[in-house]
């Protein structure tokens, strides 16, 4: 009852949070796109600086980070009630460190920044408006705004934020403020001319028994790719921390290895977000059978070294390029299968379902909802307790308890 009475205030604050986060997302996103373009034009000169940029990133976090160094783990800890505060310093730290990662060629994403800064903003509002039992709602509201402001997919953002904290549980109590904040952030960043990615599909696949079986097989393969990414990331982070206990040595040595690999493998083809692979997959450009695997491995190496960014856009690239490879084997159109991989690999790696289905619809068209639903559901049920988020919890319906994912 107290939550219901607080909803009018939460709705108003959701507009404010969405507006603020949308503006910050716009600044972050537009600068990131400029830096990515600049890196593409000067890749040979910038990539060798990547290890030293890593030292600067680690210095900033060691000197100024405090609990901000936990990143998404801190966001999940606040969502689970294990921590109370996300320090405001997290916002400039994660933004600057991600800009440095991308300027010098690290293979990473950007959603981690958006979700963390959204969570930090909403956490600040939660500390100022002390409404009992709604701190998690504030957090989900901010996460939703952060994701929506960057990708301009408000429905996917809201449902992703509501389902990502605990696998198998949807925080419907946060539905209204999460959707309001997502719509506001998305409108704000769009109004401020932050680039939005859409690709309306034009191909259809008949719902024959044979095609349904092929779609189920695609879901299985995309699910395996997403779980492979999650397991590889967890393993690589643990091994890197054991092998190089000093974080400066770790990021320097792995940064040197990363630089050599990125230069050797087609002169930076796998650097940055991976939007080049997404574009090639959807526009019938040059995609090699091993593109998805190399993007997976280099993204894992980048994040295990300690560079900042996120995983989602590389997951989009991995899924799209894998879909392009599988399309001829299934007899499906290239762009259609790439779009399914784009959504399903993301869903499998994050152990989420509704967000990936909706992001597929918002990017590629709601007419394809049945296809995204079938493939993403198949990918989701495949060992859904393995995730890129180590602090994510899983609902145990048999015992009605929560436990952490297995790795």
Automatic annotation (TrEMBL):
Taxonomic superkingdom: Bacteria
Main location class: membrane
Keyword check for Membrane: yes
SUPFAM superfamilies found in the cross-reference section: Clc chloride channel
Gene3D superfamilies given in the database record: Clc chloride channel
Transmembrane segments: 7-31, 43-61, 137-162, 174-194, 215-236, 248-266, 287-307
Recorded topology in the membrane: Multi-pass membrane protein
A UniProt-annotated Pfam family: Voltage_CLC
Record key words, sorted: Membrane, Transmembrane, Transmembrane helix
Subcellular localization: Membrane
PANTHER family the UniProt entry points to: CHLORIDE CHANNEL PROTEIN CLC-E (PTHR43427), CHLORIDE TRANSPORTER (PTHR43427:SF12)
Name this polypeptide is given: Voltage-gated chloride channel protein
Taxonomic lineage of the native organism: Bacteria, Bacillati, Bacillota, Bacilli, Lactobacillales
């Amino acid at each position: 009852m107290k939550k219901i009475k607080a909803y009018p205030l939460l709705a108003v604050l959701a507009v404010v949070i969405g507006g603020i986060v949308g503006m910050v997302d716009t600044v972050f996103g537009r600068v990131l796109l400029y830096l990515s373009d600049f890196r593409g034009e000067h890749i040979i000169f910038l990539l060798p600086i990547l290890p030293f940029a890593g030292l600067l990133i680690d210095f900033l976090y060691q000197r100024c980070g405090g609990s901000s160094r936990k990143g998404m783990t801190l966001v999940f800890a606040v969502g689970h009630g294990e921590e109370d505060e996300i320090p405001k310093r997290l916002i400039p730290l994660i933004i600057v460190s991600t800009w440095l990662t991308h300027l010098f060629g690290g293979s990473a994403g950007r959603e981690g920044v958006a979700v963390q800064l959204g969570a930090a903003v909403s956490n600040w509002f939660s500390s100022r408006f002390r409404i009992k039992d709604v701190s998690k709602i504030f957090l989900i509201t901010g996460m939703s705004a952060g994701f929506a402001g960057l990708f301009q997919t408000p429905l996917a953002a809201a449902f992703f934020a509501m389902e990502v904290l605990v696998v198998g549980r949807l925080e419907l109590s946060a539905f209204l403020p999460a959707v309001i904040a997502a719509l506001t952030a998305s409108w704000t960043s769009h109004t401020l001319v932050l680039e939005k990615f859409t690709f309306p599909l034009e191909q259809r696949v008949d719902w024959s028994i044979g095609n349904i079986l092929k779609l189920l097989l695609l879901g299985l393969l995309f699910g395996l790719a997403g779980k492979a990414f999650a397991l590889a990331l967890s393993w690589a982070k643990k091994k890197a921390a054991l092998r190089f206990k000093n974080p400066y040595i770790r990021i320097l040595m792995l940064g040197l290895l990363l630089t050599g690999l990125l230069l050797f493998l087609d002169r930076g083809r796998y650097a940055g977000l991976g939007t080049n692979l997404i574009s090639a997959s959807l526009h019938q450009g040059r995609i090699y059978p091993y593109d998805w695997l190399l993007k997976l491995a280099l993204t894992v190496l980048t994040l295990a070294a300690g560079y900042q960014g996120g995983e989602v856009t590389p997951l989009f690239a991995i899924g799209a390029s894998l879909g392009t490879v599988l399309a001829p084997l299934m007899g499906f159109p290239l762009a259609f299968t790439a779009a399914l991989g784009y959504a399903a690999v993301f869903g499998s790696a994050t152990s989420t379902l509704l967000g990936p289905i909706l992001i597929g619809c918002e990017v590629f068209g709601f007419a394809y909802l049945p296809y995204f639903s079938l493939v993403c559901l198949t990918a989701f049920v495949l060992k859904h307790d393995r995730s890129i988020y180590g602090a994510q919890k899983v609902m145990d319906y048999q015992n009605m308890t929560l436990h952490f994912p297995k790795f």
